[in-house]
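Page 42, continued from yesterday. The earlier attempt failed because a stray header line got pasted into the input along with the sequence. Redoing it now with the clean sequence only.
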Amino acid sequence: MANVNVLNMEGKQVGEISLNDDIFGVEIKEHLVHQAVVSYLANQRQGTQCTKTRAEVRGGGRKPWRQKGGGRARQGSIRSPQWTGGGVVFAPKPRDYSFKVNKKERQLALKCALTSRVKENKIVVLDELKLQEAKTKSMVTVLNALKLKKALIVTDGEASMDIKRASGNIQGVKTSAVNNINVYDILKYDIFVVTKEALSKIEEVYA
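This time it went through. Structure tokens are written below.
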């Protein structure tokens, strides 16, 4: 069972906490992590791109010149793909890019991502994270004390909205609730920051 130092908002150690091996000490399966990341990115795609084919472009009903005798290549329509203003070959159309990952595989991939943060010593546990004012300046002070630049901050409880509001304009910082964490965000940000309250909720939800 891995032990991690617990810090306060000034960056000083105030204790130590043991992590649940069922979540933070599993065998890392890279293929499941990769599948979860690809699924997340695919599900973010809107799929609203649309280009007209030669059948949909306006005009081109008349043959531009006769078939033979003109000395030029035969043409059937001025809206053929090789013409300027013509249709697009294999034109992209609205489609759904999303695909499903099984629930157990998705949960295991999340545990693998969390385990990798622990093994790489890229997890920070805070005893609490509460701001006097929901302002960017207050959040920057906390980040500077913890020496964080690119971090995913996971919180839970009443203070979550204040933290989200205060960090909204800080580049490289993202906040998330326990129920919304995903493999992509965990791996994208350099440090995984979690409060003790949120940590116990994670162990409760994903154990």
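Notes: The chain is about 35% helix and 15% strand.
Reminder to self: strip header lines before submitting.
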